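Hi C.,

You asked whether I'd gotten around to modeling the 296-residue construct. I have! Everything is below, sequence then structure, no commentary in between.
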Amino acid sequence: MSRYGLIAFASSLDQIGPITRTVEDSALLLGAMAGGDPHDSTTLDQPVPDYVGALADQNLKGLRVGLPKEYFISGIDPQVEASIRAAVEHFTKLGAEIVDISLPHTEYAVAVYYIIATAEASANLARFDGVRYGHRAKDPTSLLDFYGRTRDEGFGPEVKRRIILGTYVLSSGYHDAYYLQAQKVRTLLRRDFETAFTKCDVIVSPTSPVPAFKLGERTQDPLAMYLADIFTIAANLGGVCGISVPCGFAQPAEPGGRELPIGLQLLGPFFQEANLLRVAHAYEQSTDWHTRAPAL
């Protein structure tokens, strides 16, 4: 998938993927977007599978669905866990075999991600100094004032936070202690997935340990917001493909509140997007979660 035209955040983690109402729509878009691109040397020039055609086979008999024990930990919202367990049970009704697997280095995923991501963001976003890219401060009094106000005005609080963290972990004396160690653990996470996929065809997990939270709800507590990424960022670090589909709605915490959606994450081995889409489509078409609007 070409990243040509994407504003770089963390080069080894950045990816482009469609957000759609149905799996079929995702397959359509993926087929149009995938393939080699001379503008992006990280793409592979190989034939693009017929992702839409793969959806026709909805027979999941013999499919091995991996259930990682590390992804069902204390702290998961009970409604989320109940919805995921129900989805797993649904896969058995569709003919799939449930296999217990282990991804032993999952507990380090958040720490590794926020070291690597912030370090690469710090380097990538250094180019946005107002000279050639992005926002430019008006009427500077000096070159230093120009640089400082351009970046102060152009970046939001979260971006600044990540730049500062990334600059710290790349600084002299800390590069080997943090960034290099994180890259080594990343290799272990990747090997976890490689081992797991010798035992199963797809991995099932929650997309998030909590239901969707309200816009701006966690901006004052960045750590809580980062921890909500625990199940998705491991896929980025391991380089595997993934898709999230609706699997339920959580009841509102307060009277008169709104139901909030719960996501089911499916992960597949490298270059197995066609099979992953097929499995997600089979689940989607045998349930009605994607057609339901949350209650107001």
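If it helps when you're writing up: The first helix runs from residue 23 to 33.

Thanks,
B.
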